[in-house]
Amino acid sequence: MQDTTQLASIDLGSNSFRLEIGRFEHQHLHRIEYIKETVRLGGGLDANRHLSLEAMQRGWDCLARFSERLKNFKKKQVRVVATQTLREAKNRDVFLARGQEILGHPIDVISGKEEARLIYVGVSHLLPQSSERRLVIDIGGRSTELILGQGYTPQVMESYRVGSVTWSMKYFAGGNVSKESFHLAEIAAKAVLDETLGTYTKQHWDNVYGSSGTVGAIADILGGLGYPMQTISRSGLLEIKDILQKSGRIERVRLEGLKDDRRAVLCGGLSVLCALFDLLEINTLLVADGALRQGVLYDMIEREHNATDVRSNTVARMTRSFNIDVQQARRVTAIAQTLFEQIMPKQDITASQSLMRKLGWAAQLHEIGRHIAHSDYHKHGAYILENIDAVGFAQYELHRLGLLVLGHKGKLKKLETHLSNAAFTSQLLALRLAIIACHARIDPDWSPAQLTKTNHILTLQIPAEWLQTYPQSAHLLKQEVEAWQKTTWVFELKIAT
After folding, report:
1. Which residue, of 288, 315, 350, is where some domain finishes?
2. Cβ–Cβ < 8 Å for 148, 119
3. What is the pLDDT of residues 423-446, one digit of tens each?
């Protein structure tokens, strides 16, 4: 990535949407602009996990304003991530389709663990570097992330379904506040968070850092009460809680530092933080400058360099965890990428390189389902990839990998709706041909093969003598030609004499 490149990240949180724009310069990011809007998307999620039209409209209106600022940004300069509310919402595709149309950029719904990882990346890059062991806490609108790490490396990451919006709606409905409501809210939060015991307790960290909305709001209030700035203490939490309980209703509270956009969700967030202080025996929490949105920006920089792309490391770990035949995966990857390079789109080199990389991951993982059973292992593999928590990957990326793994063998009808995508079709054919080439599980002599693409016609040119030398491969290639006859694409063999 070149110096002075501008990058933008958008965090679609359950309470707020945030836009961060930075300039990459001398290996560091310098903030250019930060915009935050309180959308309360999570407040529009009903008991059946459907987002209301009103909540979605608030989100779309906000994205329309963000899109104006991003008008001159290229796709590779922007990443948009969505968190717990859109992980839960059954009708999220409605919101995502319109949101992506408004922005002109894809929206990645990320898993809880991936959100935790990116939070730590953002926090760690804005802290002084040291060897201290860190616990990072981020209390969002509908989820809370806890991460243990050292330096730039997150080591243990988890996300819990407890947050400021959900707890405020459930235990402080209508703005009513009492000692009893706080007691119930903290007990309920501890019931969700008690599995942190043993993993995140104080023997595992030297300092605790808090990120984002709830932590920042409470720190601002404590600063107004005379406590040290950017620091949250146990005694400070108890004082705020006492003030809130005596008020009876949240709208009566007058505290310096309490912003109107945080008022409605303050009690829920505070009860979760109090629960964590008790469970993990925290006495002092330091407020960090970094957050999810900065983590997304730094991750974008790392993704430019395959060697540091965390997704490649995740794929390597998965090959070990699922006992994948590494040599076979290597063979298939090499052939698939060679074939794809011959037909990949040349207009956008960055996009083509991304497609090449993702094809490589699919090739490395195409036998992941054998860990469950040899029969229909491609179906098992697709299921694993659709449901696994894979660090660095957005859900749509895992879905695409799953489709490639599902389609690497068998009939193509199951992928009929996806074959309208030329790039996906090119990836799929390259993978299927590579698996044919490597069917004997030895390094194949595939160098004479040349793949070309003209509109919807894909042609594999191969010498006649090669087909005579490898009759089983020739048979499988003829079957492949027949398989594609039932699609809108044409795959043909051209025999060179």
Report:
1. 288
2. no
3. 999 999 999 999 999 999 999 888
| 165 and 265 Cβ atoms separated by less than 8 Å | yes
pLDDT tens-digit map of 49-98: 999 999 999 999 999 999 999 998 998 899 999 999 999 999 999 999 99
Residues whose CB is less than 8 angstroms from the CB of residue 283 and which lie 6 or more positions away in sequence, other chains included: 233, 234, 277
DSSP 41: S
Are 279 and 380 in a shared domain? no
Both 406 and 472 in one domain: the answer is yes
Helices (H), 83-229: 84-88, 92-103, 112-125, 164-171, 179-193, 213-224
pLDDT per residue as tens digits for the range 216-260: 999 999 999 999 999 999 999 999 999 999 999 998 988 888 888
Question: Which strands form 107-109's sheet, in the order they lie side by side?
Answer: 28-38, 16-25, 5-12, 78-82, 107-109
Residue 20 per-residue DSSP state: E
- Under DSSP, the state recorded for 127 is S
Residue in this structure with the two tokens 């001159």, named with its chain if needed: 72
Report the percent of the chain where pLDDT is more than 70. Answer: 98
CATH code, domain carrying 188: 3.30.420.150
Which of the 8 DSSP states describes residue 265? T
Mean of pLDDT values over 264-290: 95
Q: Report how many domains make up the chain.
A: 3
Alpha-helix runs per DSSP H in 248-325 = 260-263, 266-279, 292-303, 310-321
